[in-house]
Design goal:
Elements lengths: L1 E5 L9 H9 L6 H4 L11 E5 L2 E5 L8 H5 L5 E3 L6 E3 L9 H5 L6 E2 L6 E2 L5 H5 L5 H5 L5 E5 H29 L2 H7 L4
Antiparallel strand pairs: 1-8, 2-3, 4-5, 6-7
């Protein structure tokens, strides 16, 4: 199963993912014409600030998705091939129960249509063999798309390398300080 992984420590809040998402969900699929469309395209990812970090909040396409269970109209469902949870806007009645139960705050309201809007994994792009627009648009690679097990292993390796580099720095600092140096700094010699 493929997923979008978020490395929030790499996010600079440039909001390129938001722009890429809105453009992908526009009629024209072009930035310079999308900004003049009526209705305006709606982004499905939201970069939020949290203390000194930024977090690109999006639908996590939960295995046991509360939004699917909560939707009285059956507008929320799962796409079989990708596992993506998506909204059938024609069936949505605008009650926003899905937004109320989403633990990630990933469901938005389309201002003009008054229906639920959320990440759909850019299903048309996936069918073309491309990655979701937000991933492609992220200049810092804070968003990556791939098989879950591969991305988890990559995260483990990155964490292990980070720990090893810190340990190496500690060892290097210990090697630089000798007993003679300590005595000199303490005024003993």
């Amino acid at each position: 199963m493929k997923e979008v992984f978020i490395e929030f420590e790499r996010c600079t809040a440039c909001k390129s993912c938001e722009i890429a998402c809105a453009v992908e969900h526009s009629s024209s699929k072009e930035l310079f014409t999308a900004i003049y469309e009526k209705p305006l395209p709606v982004k499905r990812i939201h970069v939020e600030r949290a203390f000194c970090f930024s977090y690109p909040a999006k639908c996590m396409h939960c295995t046991d998705a509360a939004c699917i269970k909560a939707c009285p109209a059956g507008a929320m469902s799962r796409e079989a091939d990708s596992g993506a949870v998506f909204v059938n806007e024609d069936r949505c009645m605008g009650c926003f129960m899905c937004a109320m139960v989403c633990p990630f705050g990933a469901v938005s309201v389309s201002p003009e249509e008054k229906v639920a809007v959320k990440c759909d994994f850019c299903l048309s792009r996936l069918k073309e063999g491309k990655v979701p627009a937000c991933v492609e648009g992220c200049p810092t690679r804070a968003l990556t798309f791939g098989e879950v097990n591969h991305l988890v292993k990559k995260k483990r390796v990155t964490t292990a390398e980070s720990v090893a580099m810190r340990l190496d720095r500690v060892k290097e600092e210990r090697r630089k300080v000798t007993a003679l140096d300590l005595l000199r700094t303490m005024g003993g010699i």
